């Protein structure tokens, strides 16, 4: 089996990730989370994860699955508390889907946006992609 | 800093906001003065078809948005030859001047990019 | 470059369409439901097998395990990797492109 740990750690790269699917209707968000965690454990940087399309549902703060089930929103919140990682939810995608007014409205969003996430614009994604050595998108319908 | 961005459109327009949200990303990257190209493959080629009457369902005419790409200084719009032919379409059915690319050249186009978005 | 595929090909044609957009020396990693594509007897197993001469082919271990797919039932051309291996593939093979459904 080929594992990352067997390689010499010669290159330390900067990653930008994008999550485009909702947490429980597809595996994409969880895959992105595990990728981000593994990358940081190998010494790479994951500066920003941008949540777009139905990926914005990953930031719904009232998500509360039963205790014996996986809490995908909670995984991200915990990661953001432990590591330096910027979790950005796209404002226009959020507005289309009806769960926030605008990005200056952060106060009224308390609770609605899960801890560790912030709402901002697509420029944040482009900015991260420009600065990153690698940009990966995760998502899909299944 | 300038990076090469390729946005791959592979889904049909009008049944979801997919194409519109892809275009939002594309135009934002262009607004940051990046080298932006588009590639339309599979059902993505339907976005460029002329004669769309989206007002019948209160949709946006996506071909018109693609048409405005020139203003944003987009480098190139590529359409995969096999995807067009496989849907009975010709370049004359498209509302935009595009570069027709054979499937065998798609890999080479992708390898020239820094960022590829195919959602 | 690195191609990610997250769905199993339902037929040989679907596999050919995607595989023929890859180029020699590209790397192909099957993740999520995509890992079902590299089992022997899967709908496009022959196409994937014949493509192994052109690209390196990998499957993600946790996604194989979840779906009960053991190494013994995989096509011989497929190498198994874990998440750190996934990261390393992305480091060594930019850019990264997703073929998702």
Describe this structure in a few short sentences.
Chain A is of the alpha/beta class and 142 residues long. Chain A has helices at 28-41, 72-82, 91-96, 122-131; strands at 14-19, 45-51, 86-90, 117-120, 134-138. Chain C has a single domain, classed as Hypothetical Protein Ychn, Chain: A (3-Layer(aba) Sandwich).
Describe the overall structure.
The complex is a heterotrimer of chains A (142), B (119) and C (101). Chain A is of the alpha/beta class. Chain A is built from four helices and five strands. The longest helix of chain A has 14 residues, at 28-41. Chain A is globular. The two termini of chain A are 27 Å apart. Chain B is an alpha/beta fold and 119 residues long. Chain B has one domain: Hypothetical Protein Ychn, Chain: A. Chain B has helices spanning 18-31, 62-67, 81-85, 106-111, and strands spanning 4-9, 35-40, 76-80, 99-101, 115-118. Chain C has a single domain (2-99), classed as DsrEFH-like (Hypothetical Protein Ychn, Chain: A). A five-stranded parallel beta sheet of chain C has the order 4-3-2-1-5. In chain C, helix 1 (12-19) runs parallel beside helix 2 (45-51). The longest helix of chain C has 10 residues, at 83-92. The mean pLDDT of chain C is 97. Chains in contact: A-B, A-C, B-C. The A-C interface holds A 1-5, 7, 11, 13, 15, 26-28, 31, 34-35, 37-39, 41-42, 44, 133-142 and C 4, 6-7, 31-33, 58, 61-63, 79-88, 90-91, 94-96, 98, 100-101.
């Amino acid at each position: 089996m080929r594992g990352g740990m067997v390689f010499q750690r010669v290159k330390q790269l900067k990653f930008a990730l994008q999550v485009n699917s909702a947490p429980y209707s597809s595996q994409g968000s969880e895959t992105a989370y595990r990728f981000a965690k593994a990358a940081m454990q190998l010494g790479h940087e994951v500066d920003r994860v941008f949540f777009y399309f139905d990926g914005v549902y990953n930031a719904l703060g009232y998500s509360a699955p039963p205790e014996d089930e996986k809490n995908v929103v909670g995984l991200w919140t915990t990661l953001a508390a432990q590591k330096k990682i910027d979790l950005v939810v796209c404002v226009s995608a959020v507005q289309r889907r009806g769960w926030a007014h605008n990005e200056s409205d952060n106060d009224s969003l308390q609770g609605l946006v899960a801890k560790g996430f912030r709402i901002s614009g697509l420029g944040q994604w482009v900015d991260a992609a420009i600065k990153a050595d690698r940009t990966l998108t995760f998502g899909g319908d299944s | 800093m300038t990076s090469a961005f390729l946005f791959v459109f592979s889904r049909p327009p009008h049944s979801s906001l997919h194409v519109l949200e892809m275009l939002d990303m594309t135009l934002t990257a262009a607004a940051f003065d990046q080298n932006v190209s588009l590639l339309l493959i599979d059902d993505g080629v339907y976005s460029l078809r002329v004669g769309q009457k989206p007002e019948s369902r209160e949709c946006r005419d996506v071909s018109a948005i693609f048409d405005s790409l020139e203003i944003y200084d987009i480098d190139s719009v590529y359409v995969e030859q096999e995807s067009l032919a496989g849907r009975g379409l010709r370049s004359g059915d498209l509302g935009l001047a595009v570069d027709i690319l054979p499937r065998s050249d798609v890999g080479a186009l992708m390898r020239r990019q820094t960022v590829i978005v195919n959602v | 470059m690195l191609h990610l595929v997250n769905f199993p090909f339902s037929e040989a044609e679907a596999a050919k369409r995607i595989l023929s957009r890859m180029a020699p020396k590209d790397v192909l990693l099957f993740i999520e439901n995509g890992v079902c594509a590299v089992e022997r007897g899967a709908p496009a197993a022959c196409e994937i097998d014949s493509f192994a001469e052109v690209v390196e082919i990998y499957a993600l271990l946790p996604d194989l395990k979840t779906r009960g797919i053991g190494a013994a039932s995989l096509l011989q051309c497929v190498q198994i990797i874990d998440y750190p291996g996934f990261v390393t593939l992305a480091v060594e093979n930019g850019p990264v492109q997703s073929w998702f459904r």
